[in-house]
Design goal:
The chain has 540 residues and is α+β, with helices and mostly antiparallel strands. It has three domains: 232 residues, PAS domain (Beta-Lactamase), CATH 3.30.450.20; 109 residues, Helix Hairpins; 167 residues, Alpha-Beta Plaits (2-Layer Sandwich), CATH 3.30.70. 48% of the residues lie in helices and 21% in strands. It is built from 15 helices and 18 strands. The strands form four sheets. Strands 14-15-13-16-17-18 form a six-stranded mixed sheet, with helices on both faces. The termini are far apart.
Length: 540
């Protein structure tokens, strides 16, 4: 029975730690991505305003349930740290999450840094309104402080030690009133965990006391173990409850027969009551109620079963939360966000993969892989009302391939599909900012939304798209390659209470119509562009 209890504790600790780390990864990613497109944050980073960055980002830490932000410029030089406002000006380009972000990629890693030994970090690139990379937002959850391990001890009901390399740097285990941080990892365990990169669980000796322990290696971006989690419970605490129940049984056995019968009645009642409750809980779960209070406190088989049931509901909760978050992101038009099915196992992964397939079919164009008309119709109102709230310009580009029916007739429909895929990929790669959005409207027409972009900036982007597509060499049977051009209509507006979304789109469509009428392969903007572009005038 003692071995069973120890094994149950180790399994519960391992699962709890995995859930915590995955939540931390998700929180840092949400924080970094959200702040990288925050207009006030972008402005402060563009102006290199250290005080404003520290103030603005520091206010957002609790909102995203993270510990800190680090913000750097486009060369990896720190502009501000929320956890150390007076420390900036050093380079963090050696951090992989920052390096990835400087190359336009969002990534999350367990990493060490200049001032923090162990943390979960997500780096996200920050682009200016013209698509220029101006910096990086890195969000993190710390795992290397006494406060961090104390919080985890309360969460897991286990002692926690964080090892950096093979040396403890924070621990909840106390000896003579002092933390045991500074102790060295057992060489045999270090061989398994650090060198072989494997988890380890079992009984270990910690300064003369036996612990039921679980060790988890943390791998950095280079797949090297640079830190290790220790979760442990004194074996004496686990066996004490068992010994206590045995002594109680002996005492009861010495009581008189009549008293024993009465006690037996109450014991059976106390056992049957939690079993009945657990059975009701299982029926509630089967009927779709996952918010029930499951009894997981007992150390007997009923308590173990309750914990197993709670673990199953936690997995379902996470899957549902991830699905809900993904759907919310897709409703905003962020169709690049998907839940990570690799975080789930067995039938849960099969279910997650099925959900991903359904969502992809519903929100993405099956031919080109970019967002479809439905995604655009979801995104447009959100950007419209955000622009109205922030009194910021919003631009729309409508792109149409010129004489595409004749192109299909000449090269065939299969080549037409290849061309549409190539054009879609080109447009997407031309847009550099995370907030820019492209969708296939249908047929040979594409739509682009450019938040926080004025008329001049929108015209520059449109002309860049037109020029790149004009110079594309699309592979085909013709040795000279298939050539296509596009006409683009542009409209820009700062939405007000009197503005209408339909009129906003219609003006861009009218500009596209004028581009077609006046020769194609050109950009026409609706409205005035600083005196350079009058209404209806075409430029290329």
């Amino acid at each position: 029975m003692s071995d069973n209890l120890i094994n149950e504790k180790l399994i519960a600790n391992a699962n709890s730690l995995n859930f915590y780390l995955e939540d931390s990864r998700a929180n840092t990613r949400e924080a970094a991505v959200s702040m990288a497109v925050n207009s006030d944050a972008v402005k402060a980073i563009r102006e290199r305003d250290t005080n404003e960055i520290a103030l603005l980002f520091g206010f957002m830490e609790s909102l995203y349930r993270i510990d800190y932000f680090t913000v750097c410029d486009d060369e990896g030089i720190v502009l501000a740290r929320t956890f150390a406002p007076d420390s900036f000006g050093d380079s963090i380009i050696d951090q992989q999450n920052v390096l990835d972000a400087l190359n336009g990629k969002i990534s999350t890693y367990f990493e060490t840094g200049n001032l923090i030994s162990v943390a979960v970090r997500t780096g996200c690139p920050v682009f200016d309104v013209d698509g220029e990379l101006i910096g990086v937002v890195s969000a993190g959850v710390r795992l290397d402080t006494e406060n961090a391990v104390e919080d985890l001890k309360k969460l897991f009901n286990s002692d926690v030690t964080m090892f950096f390399g093979n040396t403890g740097i924070a621990s909840t285990i106390m000896r003579d009133g002092e933390s045991i941080a500074g102790t060295i990892l057992d060489p045999q365990i270090a061989e398994i965990v650090i060198r072989n990169r494997q988890e380890y669980s079992g009984e270990v000796d910690v300064l003369g006391e036996k612990y039921a322990a679980f060790y988890m290696p943390l791998l950095n971006a280079q797949e090297e173990v640079f830190a290790t989690f220790f979760l442990g419970i004194p074996v004496a605490d686990i066996t004490a409850a068992l010994s206590s129940s045995i002594r109680a049984g002996i005492i009861l056995g010495l009581c008189g027969l009549a008293v024993s019968i009465v006690l037996l009645f109450f014991i059976l009642s106390s056992i049957s009551e939690p079993i009945v409750k657990l059975s009701k809980d299982m029926n509630q779960i089967a009927n779709g109620n996952l918010s029930i209070d499951i009894n997981t406190k007992g150390e007997d088989e009923v308590g173990q079963l309750g914990r197993s049931l709670q673990m199953a509901t936690n997995v379902i909760h996470k899957l549902l939360n991830d699905i809900d978050y993904m759907i919310n992101e897709h409703e905003k038009g962020n169709t690049d966000y998907f839940l990570n099915s690799a975080e789930f196992h067995g039938d849960y992964r099969v279910l997650a993969d099925s959900v991903l397939l359904l969502v992809s079919l519903g929100m993405r164009d099956p031919l080109t892989g970019i967002p479809n008309k439905r995604s655009f119709e979801n995104r447009l109102p959100l950007e419209w009302y955000r622009a109205a709230r922030e009194k910021a310009p919003l631009s729309i580009l409508i792109i149409d391939l010129d004489r595409f029916k004749s192109f299909d007739d000449r090269f065939g429909y299969e080549q037409g599909d290849v061309t549409l895929q190539t054009v879609a990929k080109t447009i997407k790669e031309t847009l550099k900012r995370l907030i820019d959005f492209v969708a296939r409207w249908g047929g040979e027409k594409f739509m682009i939304l450019l938040p926080m972009t004025d008329a001049e900036g929108a015209f520059v982007v449109a002309e860049k798209v037109r020029s790149i597509i004009e110079n594309l060499k699309i592979p085909c049977a013709d040795p000279n390659g298939a050539k296509v051009t596009v006409s683009i209509g542009v409209n820009t507006l700062i939405p007000t209470a009197e503005s209408e979304i339909n009129s906003f789109v219609a003006a861009a469509e009218e500009a596209l119509h004028r581009a077609k009428e006046t020769g194609r392969n050109k950009v026409v903007a609706s409205g005035q562009r600083r005196g350079l572009l009058s209404k209806g005038q075409a430029l290329n």
